[in-house]
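agent: user wants the full assembly modeled, not chains individually. Plan: 1) parse entity lines 2) check alphabet per entity 3) run joint structure prediction 4) return tokens. Steps 1-2 passed, two entities, 546 residues total. Proceeding.
--- entities ---
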Amino acid sequence: MKVGRFELFAGRTLLLALMAFTILPFSSIFLTALAPSNTLPRGFEWPAEPQWGNFVLAFKQAHMPALLVSSTFLVLAIVPVSLVISTMAGFAIGLLRIPGANVLLFLFVFGLTIPFSGIVIPIYILERAVHLYNTRLALVLPLIALYMPFAVFWMRAHFVNMPAEITDAARVDGATTWDLFWRIHIPLARAPVSSLGILMSIWTWNHLLLALVLVEDPTMRTMAGALGAFQGHYATDIPLLCAGTILILVPTLVVFVLFQRQIILALLQGAVKG
Amino acid sequence: MYAVFVLVPILLTILYSFYHWNGVGPMTWVGLKNYVSVFQNPNLIETVFNAFWLVVWFSFIPVGLGLVVASVMHRVATGRFGAIARTVLFLPQVIALVAAGIIWGWLLALPGLINQILEAIGLGAITRAWLGDFDWALPSVGVIGIWILLGFCTVLLSTAMAKIDPALYESARLDGSSWLQEFLAITVPLLRYEIGVCLTVTVINAIAAFDIVYVTTAGGPGNSTAVPGLQIYILAFTQRAVGLASALAVMLMALVIVIILPIQRLNREVSL
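--- prediction returned ---
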């Protein structure tokens, strides 16, 4: 394919400019995080004496060990349960086509459009009534439920596209529905299940609104929720705030770089099918 | 579980919206009065207008720009450079919105990078605390939205573009078509479905925005960046006006559906 020299140059310049637009903010907070604590540096300058200790300080000030335990607990409590439920539901709706499958599907698709802020009030009042408020369970239960529209939809899309021959062949060999699910289709669904798991882990880590509303103690919140509280305390100490922010976003960036392909594919397919 | 935490709350939100209630005391039936208040209180109805403004920034610009960027990539960066560009542009999508908010809160601050750049290119006169400025706060929040969503749109559209039959482009190029002609005659029409998807996702993001606004401006200065998601939170959890907050929440959910439906309808016609 032939593309003009000028066009090649202009196009690549545009792409480079946009990449700079994306990267510069990250570099700016990184440099700021190295400035002496409690000073107000410029947005972009290499500090005279880089204060690597800021990261250690932020790590301690933000109660990072407790937070890591808390967020890990949340992810471990939410993601496996969501995966089991959504896989089974997706299987039932997409492959078995149980009676009422279309109604169920519609309810879940409808759920995809509901903003969290639309239903946070009743959840809060409900949880106060049953004394779940300010416990870790207060986040686990609603988040599992709120991920379900996407998760079920996503798994259904996988099962719907499985060739019917596989199911028919297994049936002929006398497989029960459970065999079919557990021994045939689960092993085949490994890829979509793991992508979904990665996505939901990142979402949990990054979730703010419910953490803010349902859990008072910042050390029991999600990472994003804790960062919100940290910002409240250290709004004036910019270098420390930047260091804390970096600590919290590095894990998601690492996960992203490791599982890039899966994450991008998952987000895109989820969106297109949704 | 889905029923308890999603479907029932939707109904309860609608129910609460007809009451005057502080969350603990007795509930008084007030009918549609809460909705009337939303419309009559300039501070509340302004949040809805702000949400529409954010749709332009969070949705139209990233989708439009994403379309251009994806097609540029398709022409001049098919190999490794394109792959790297896609990864880099996608980065903001995976970090917490709170983190994005804090990062940009600092960039847009008085001593931040944005003002530093402006000074460097001789525009020192227009530097300001962007997020604290009545006229500029909302567009500034909008720029954050572009930063976050551009990568998502670009990658989604460029994946779809890769599936378009290359023969179409080749024959167009044999006829000597320019980038613009290709773009308008082949790319945009064939990607209508994906464009619809992008619009749907980003519009929901815009109307339901909470995290970024909460972190960067908390709705200020004044009321200039208040959006429904944030206002619901403030009304319900700091002012204890549960009924009013619920009415706004119902309107927010209705708004999303009203805007999404035509886009979806358009999609369906295309796929037929």
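agent: reporting back. The first helix of chain A runs from residue 5 to 33. The domain at 63-232+247-273 of chain A is CATH 1.10.3720.10 (MetI-like fold).
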